[in-house]
Amino acid sequence: MSPTAARITAVDTHDIRFPTSRELDGSDAMNPDPDYSAAYVVLRTDAADGIEGHGFSFTIGRGNDVQVAAIDALRAHVVGRSVGELCADPGTLFRDLIGDSQLRWLGPEKGVMHMAIGAVVNAVWDLAAKRAAKPLWQFLADAEPAWLVDQIDFRYITDALTPEEALELLRRGRRGAAERAARLREKGFPAYTTSPGWLGYDDEKLTRLATQAVADGFTQIKLKVGADLADDTRRCRVARSAVGPGIRIAIDANQRWNVAEAITWTKALAEFDPYWIEEPTSPDDILGHAAVRRAVAPVKVATGEHVQNRIVFKQLLQAGAIDILQIDAARVGGVNENLAILLLAAKFGVPVCPHAGGVGLCELVQHLSMFDFVALSGTTDDRVIEYVDHLHDHFLDPVVIREGHYTAPAAPGFSATMRPESIARYTYPGGTFWAADLAQQKGEAA
């Protein structure tokens, strides 16, 4: 079959879960026992090249089956589409998926359905970049600015960013792009690590991992806070002692506080010179974030991993509510919507420091930041990508960290392809790990 005639023949889904709660990996004040999980999707085609598109939504355990069901609900929009047309214009599918009037009622453009759309749309971009034989960051950086603008849905955001302004930002961003791409391949993109700072870790583990992070070249670490002020004070003191005065320490409350509490708590920890306070309150509370920002300066305010769409990001920027914008590769409607958010951040001059970690989020979001550096913002100043050293070995093209920097991916695609053996082992509940685990629990209960 010729490439032009190839069609999407299947949308395969998998409920993949990892038992991370057993070591308290990922533990924070709001999520004490996460089992990092992926509602995983594979787009198969009848093209002779056999290339597949891979994507996923990230969850933390229970409910991953609900997320899989949401992806399944989109199958009819995808199967039968022309592979060539889909890869030439992923925006057509993005608009069709967010525009399904009956499914839209479940959002609109937020929650489980929107995350499902993001998983499918990201799988299309993975397919497109693989067919172009480029890593996604390069595929985006090489794209014509007018084409990138056509990928974006400007509905609800033109009061802050027009298509004409976006086009000018992208045209300006291309100047010097080749030199920045070469620099990226040579030096990578700055990273910071959250690995030392999980709330469930004891002081010895915190000290050991923080000290190791500095030795590995990281210039910023992050600590989870928000459950107990006395405990947070002690842990911040331990971390500052371990890393010294020249290393940035960010703190992350994971939405735990009311506005007044966020202000009081952040000020109480100010003696440890926190670089930013992340998710100090509800991700939907724009005015609350603005109030916190005014009160806790010079500590910066960061949020975004639970911001549901480009419209909320627009308002956070318009309200002067954040110093740091944190995109998430799998929370919003995929690459298309993240392009809109990156452009909004560029318009307002706010640095983007993505959320990562989880299952595969590091693998995905590195591409978006690298595109931003090469072909939009043109800088890595005050920009870092989160790094967490969990679960990378389950991917065929895992992230590589060198001297505190993300190495630029070279393999074609979005770095989303999970190893078949990992899918077979950790699919819930029938994968080999979970089947044996559930049988053991049943035996112990008897």
Structure explained in plain terms:
The chain has 446 residues and is an alpha/beta fold. The protein folds into two domains: 3-132, Enolase-like, domain 1, CATH 3.30.390.10; 177-421, TIM Barrel. Helix content is 44%, strand content 13%. The chain is built from 19 helices and twelve strands. It has helices spanning 64-72, 75-78, 83-88, 90-99, 101-104, 111-131, 136-142, 145-150, 163-173, 177-187, 203-215, 229-243, 259-268, 286-296, 310-318, 334-348, 361-375, 420-426, 432-445, and strands at residues 8-17, 37-45, 53-59, 189-193, 220-224, 248-252, 274-278, 300-303, 324-325, 385-387, 401-402, 405-406. The chain has a five-stranded parallel sheet. A four-stranded mixed sheet has the order 10-4-12-11, covered by helices on one side. Strands 1-2-3 form a three-stranded antiparallel sheet. A hairpin with a 7-residue loop joins β2 and β3 (53-59). α11 runs parallel beside α12, α13 packs parallel to α14 (286-296) and α15 packs parallel to α16. The radius of gyration is 21 Å and the shape is globular. The chain starts with 7 loop residues before the first strand and ends with a helix. The model has no long low-confidence stretch (mean pLDDT 96). It is an enzyme of class 4 (lyase). This is L-fuconate dehydratase. Its cofactor is Mg(2+). One of its GO terms (biological process) is carbohydrate catabolic process. It catalyses: L-fuconate = 2-dehydro-3-deoxy-L-fuconate + H2O.
